[in-house]
Amino acid sequence: MSATVLVVEDESAIQELIAYNLRNAGYTALCTNSAEQAAAMVNEVLPDLVLLDWMLPGKSGIELARSLRRDPRTKPIPVIMLTARVDERDKVIGLETGADDYVTKPFSPRELIARIKAVLRRSLPEASDEILDIGGVQINPMTHRVTVTDLNDDTREKELLLSPTEYRLLHFLMAHAERVHTRAQLLDRVWGDHVFVEDRTVDVHIRRLRKALDVAGKADLVQTVRGAGYRFSTRSESEI
Asked: Is the Cα dihedral 70, 175, 95, 61 positive or negative?
């Protein structure tokens, strides 16, 4: 699942350099040169991370970071400050504002991508390209292949054929294994923010996902938590 990074940078050469390296690393890059336009873009679609220059024309990056943290809808979005301000006090201000990391100019594109990957790994594990292997179900984000180990013969593997939505749903649940997610949370994170579909859509895709997993006796890994939502767990209801 490719993560979307919103780049807020008013120097066109730096913006292009960052966008080029993000796309080479497999991310989707959205770019703007002002805090005002960035706020409008975030209002339409939530990015997975904001790479934010401190010094911008008009509203500053720090002001935008503060407004993102004040809004419950945008508060969880990780923010990396990108700035030429190297004074320790400035770094403290940036981090206290709610930035998850602070990168100073000039910067190494490789280091910047590594910082982005580290922040996303903590906040958005489903965006990682790491192979997940839980309870005999293996998902490979690089190849988009899902394989399951046969319940009666652990030397045999079967590849599951999932729809794109079922794949994203499984990947998200496995990346956050043992955590319970409401239908609304799954709609936001799997279908996308500002996509208006009914909560029961989640139930339909959960049933399809369980049916696909059931060919290897793995349907019970996707569990319903009554009154709360769904989780991916290797533990039975009696153990939880």
From this structure: negative
